[in-house]
Design brief:
Blueprint lengths: L18 E9 L5 E5 L7 E3 L1 H6 L7 E8 L6 E10 L4 E7 L2 E4 L8 E2 L10 E5 L6 E7 L4 H11 L2 H7 L15 E2 L6 E4 L8 E7 L5 E8 L10 H9 L3 E3 L2 E3 L4 H7 L7 E11 L5 E12 L2 E4 H10 L6 H24 L4 H5 L3 E5 L2 E5 L5 H25 L5 E3 L7 H11 L12 H13 L4 H8 L7 E3 L23 H14 L9 H33 L5 E9 L2 E6 L5 E5 H4 L6 E2 L4 E4 L2 E4 L3 E10 L4 E6 L2
Parallel strand pairs: 11-18, 12-19
Antiparallel strand pairs: 1-2, 1-4, 2-3, 4-5, 6-7, 6-9, 7-8, 9-10, 13-14, 14-17, 15-16, 17-18, 20-21, 22-23, 24-25, 24-30, 25-26, 27-28, 28-29, 30-31
Helix pairs in contact: 2-14, 6-9, 7-9
Length: 630
């Protein structure tokens, strides 16, 4: 007999004619799927396993679906599906006896392979436009880093977009525009040790009355990548550079991103510069944008900068030390004013262990503990991006703006429950504002709460920031207007903003670009890249755990529902659902509210730390299931 917290079996309607919609297929590795309607306001349609398999549907396929609705109106079930278009031409999977068993997040039906095919156990990428499928590449066993990377890139469709838009020859255009010569300024870049695409550099000078003029120089990629050129078309298709553990795919070819456009030391470079006059109170009193010419004097690392700013000792040139100290003073001023208006810090969100691949091995990477240097760059780049947004708006120019919605209403009880789980009672008003979340964070930190885990929970209630032609607010940065301007080597949105500004500076009309269509394209591209990056890190962590799984692992409850509790490992960042049967042999759950449930005479609440152990780990699917440790 079903408990009062379980929904009764749903029966299809038989009195009404079936309905139909168009949408995209979402494949679940457990054997079923959903159709996500093209109209986002519409509800999903469940695809039963037999129908999903009989139609050989692939994740992302565009379909027309005829469906039935249950009597209670709470569920829709597909009756008939017509394939309108395939989402992809390639699949990644494991070879078994002459067939490819696809990544179960993309497809569930085995694909026959053309001879000669790899031995059973190998992984491969195949071209499914031919029958039998043709092998494109082989990547070794499923646990090999090369296989994990290929799986992530194919699941996100990044590799397919990349392969279709490769540019063999790079011929950078010459830029004859008059530039302001800033090569006499002491200039430097600050990046991670592995970075090769150096697209921002800093200079500084003191002005009267305590004002500091901060120069943020950004690589002028637009001068090397003409609009509509093959390189530009590839960059637009990619939308963004993709960074996976131990591997990256640059948006523009390496000859440009790593060499010609990269702000390497002692090399003259064409740049776009934002100069900002910063008062002692942290206000930007004057901003100027112009084309420039710089020479970077030094390439600094985050740890090198942090060592100098925190310890005061360094082997850096004295001129670099003096300039770095002034830049730090300027960005500290900016940070004080920005923190006063609220918002989130990227460093707080990212202060967790990472994982990568080196020499064919999976390696765990600890944070570099150079927060002071990361904060310096973050403040400089945020200020530059906001200044450019203001510049565009004041002049009535078009732009590609970055907007970020506030968390949904469920965030308030979830965050207060998290604080309560650590013995800290802090009120948080609804709706959440940048200022209120900042005050909540400060109070939590003052009482010894974990800020990193706070933002881990908050991220579950926040939507992804998006690009739009219309300006809007950015919740995370507490900004009323924001653009991406500071990374044109890595992001097509920045490159587009550069082109708009360069046209204005030259007295020319704005480039003829359909910004609505472009923003939709970039949002789709960045979503693909984000999925590939997330999948890759999950797969690497799973491979790391599969080698030696601890008997007990600490986990944090981040969501509760009538289905169970969703937990995330504190040390590894992996998440999974503990279902009703995992919590109670009878599967009985009692939902106590938006943040708590009762199972087997025990209450589970958001924010609560529990112990779990691995029940199963499927590297082929990239999933892990946990079991509660009593």
């Amino acid at each position: 007999m079903a408990s009062k917290n379980q929904r009764p079996p749903r029966s299809p309607r038989i009195d009404d004619a079936p309905e139909r919609i168009t949408g995209t297929v979402s494949v679940n590795p457990r054997g079923f799927g959903f159709v996500n309607p093209s109209d986002k306001a519409d509800a999903d349609v469940f695809i039963p396993p037999p129908l999903l398999r009989s139609k050989s549907l692939i994740d992302g396929d565009l379909v027309d679906v005829v469906f039935d609705t249950s009597f209670d109106g709470l569920s829709r079930t597909a009756r008939h599906i017509t394939l309108l278009s395939r989402s992809r031409t390639r699949l990644f999977g494991r070879v078994q006896n002459g067939s490819l068993l696809p990544d179960p997040f993309t497809a569930l039906v085995a694909v026959p392979l053309r001879r000669p095919y790899p031995p059973t156990g190998e992984t491969a990428v195949v071209d499914i436009t031919e029958t039998p499928a043709r092998i494109i590449s082989v990547h070794g066993p499923a646990s090999a880093p090369a296989a994990l990377l290929a799986q992530a890139l194919e699941r996100g469709r990044v590799a397919e977009v990349d392969a279709a838009n490769i540019v063999d020859k790079v011929l950078p255009a010459e830029d004859h525009t008059h530039r302001r010569d800033l090569s006499d300024l002491v200039t430097f870049t600050i990046d991670g040790p592995e970075s090769r695409d150096l697209d921002d550099a800093l200079s500084v000078m003191r002005l009267p009355d305590g004002v500091i003029r901060l120069f943020v120089h950004i690589a002028d990629v637009a001068s090397a990548v003409p609009l509509g050129s093959p390189i530009d078309e590839r960059a637009r298709a990619m939308g963004t550079s993709v960074y996976l553990p131990g591997h990256s795919i640059p948006m523009i070819p390496p000859a440009l991103s790593y060499e010609h456009c990269s702000l390497l030391p002692n090399q003259p470079r064409a740049t776009l510069t934002v100069s900002m006059d910063i008062s002692p109170e942290g206000e930007i009193t004057n901003t100027e944008l112009f084309e420039s010419h710089i020479v970077s004097n030094a390439r600094l690392s985050y740890t090198e900068v942090a060592g100098f700013l925190e310890e005061g000792t360094s082997s850096l040139d004295h001129q670099i030390q003096a300039a770095l100290s002034i830049v730090h003073q300027a960005t500290t001023r900016l940070g004080v004013l920005r923190r006063a208006r609220g918002g989130l810090s990227a460093q707080e969100i990212e202060a967790m262990d990472d994982i990568t691949a080196k020499d064919g091995r999976i390696v765990r990477v600890h944070p570099d503990e150079a927060d002071i240097a990361h904060d310096l760059i973050e403040e400089a780049m945020v200020a530059a991006n906001e200044s450019v947004a203001s510049y565009l708006l004041e002049l009535g120019l078009h732009g590609v703006f970055r907007v970020h919605a506030a968390p949904d209403d469920e965030a308030v009880p979830a965050l207060t429950a998290f604080a309560s789980s650590q013995g800290i009672n802090i009120p948080l008003a609804s709706p959440v504002t940048p200022a209120s979340i900042s005050e909540f964070e400060a109070a939590l930190a003052a009482d010894g709460g974990s800020i990193t885990e706070l933002f881990s929970i908050l991220s579950d209630y926040m939507s992804r920031a998006e690009y739009t032609p219309s300006p809007g607010s950015h919740f995370g940065l507490a900004s009323s207007g924001y653009v991406h301007f500071t990374s044109p080597i890595r992001r097509y949105a920045d490159l587009t903003v550069h082109r708009i500004i360069k046209a204005h500076l030259a007295g020319q009309p704005t480039p003829n670009i359909d910004l609505v269509e472009l923003c939709e394209s970039i949002n789709a591209s960045t979503a693909r890249a984000a999925r590939a990056e997330s999948v890759a890190r999950n797969l690497f962590w799973l491979a790391h755990l599969s080698a030696s799984t601890p008997q007990k692992m600490r986990a944090r409850i981040v969501r509760v529902s009538e289905r169970g509790i969703y937990v995330r490992l504190i040390e590894y960042g992996l998440g999974s659902l503990l279902r009703a049967r995992d919590l109670d042999p009878r599967g009985d759950l009692e939902l106590l509210g938006p943040t708590s449930i009762r199972a087997a005479k025990r209450v589970f609440s958001i924010g609560q730390e529990i112990l779990v152990k691995k029940e199963s780990l499927d590297l082929a699917a990239g999933t892990i299931d946990f079991k509660l440790v009593s």
